[in-house]
Amino acid sequence: MDEGLKMPQHVAIILDGNGRWARAKGMPRNYGHVQGAKTVETICEEAYRMGIQYLTVYAFSTENWGRPQDEVDALMKLLRNYMKTCLKTAEKNRMCVRVLGEKSRLDKDIRVRIQELEEATKDNDGLHFQIAINYGGRDEIVRAARKMAEAAAAGRLRPEDITEDIVDSFLDTAGMPEPDLLIRTCNEQRISNFLLWQLAYTEFYVTPVPWPDFTKEELIKAVEAYNHRDRKHGGLKAQ
Ligand code: IPE
Ligand code: IPE
Ligand code: MG
Q1: Distance (Å, whole) CA 9 – CA 193
Q2: Superfamily of domain 10-138+179-227
Q3: Which atom of ligand 1 lies closest to the CA of 15?
Q4: Residue 38, Cα to own-chain centre: how many angstroms?
Q5: From the CA of 195, which ligand is nearest?
Q6: pLDDT for 1
Q7: pLDDT higher than 60, residue 29
Q8: Is the CB of 15 under 6 A from ligand 2?
Q9: On the CB side of 198, how many CA atoms lie within 13 Å of its CA?
């Protein structure tokens, strides 16, 4: 890796292609998801070693409920297990974990695990790791609008005081810097309802590599490409 590389402070990833990766191997889609979960763990470690401070991954979208029930069940089972292992690895790597998304639709035991994980890691000073589960950018904005309306109705917020910073503070990502770099694997070139507000000036990098094959080397390539961008605004919040 080039020592002079400027590290993006916050990298967001739309991990994609688990199903296609498995199909190419003549395996069921779920095999791709299992492998993809392992890639998440490796990339967390590598990202932190490289000096990235915030990593956000899109694990399950509000649209993903529309997949066949057995696939949804398999993904939920993986997330359940992931929360358990994450509790151990987070300690080891001093990782501070936060889950983005609407949690009430998740099974009770998953919600409990999320709460344990967030609570146990909240003071860790290592990688800030965000996992988006039952997350949709539009849903996040709707939930924020509701919370603002409630605050206004209760007399705690005046409409004329609503600014971009105030809206920001009602989002799931409150307090975080916005992503500098968004990576999407397996060649798709769309946002798929991810971080609609936060990606306003984020640089995009698309790679043909499917997520289960994504490695540290691929991450470095993305950061190198980012270094060659003539960045506009450098992130709106940094203005
Ligand atoms: C990404 O892989 C994982 C999730 C969205 C949960 P996909 O499951 O979307 O894989 P493809 O895009 O069908 O290959
Ligand atoms: C986006 O991937 C959602 C996640 C990575 C969780 P999808 O594979 O679900 O997105 P679309 O359906 O191709 O837009
Ligand atoms: Mg996909």
Answers
A1: 22
A2: Decaprenyl diphosphate synthase-like (3.40.1180.10)
A3: 1
A4: 15
A5: 2
A6: 66
A7: yes
A8: yes
A9: 28
How do the domains of the chain map onto residue ranges?
10-138+179-227
d(CA 81, CA 87) in angstroms, rounded, equals: 10
Each residue's pLDDT tens digit, 65-93? 999 999 999 999 999 999 999 998 898 88
State yes or no: is 124 an active-site residue. no
Centre of ligand 2 to C-alpha 64, Å, is 7
Q: Can you give the pLDDT at residue 232?
A: 80
- What pairs with residue 99 in β-bridges? 131
User: Pairing state of beta strands 181-184 and 96-100?
Assistant: unpaired
Give the residue whose CA is nearest to atom 6 of ligand 2: 60
pLDDT of 235 above 80: no
Please list every protein residue whose CB sits less than 6 Å from any atom of ligand 1. Answer: 15-20, 60, 64, 75, 186
Give yes or no for a contact between 127 and 47, defined as CB atoms under 8 angstroms apart: yes
Active site residue 16: yes
pLDDT (tens digit per residue) in 189-228:
999 999 999 999 999 999 999 999 999 999 999 999 999 9
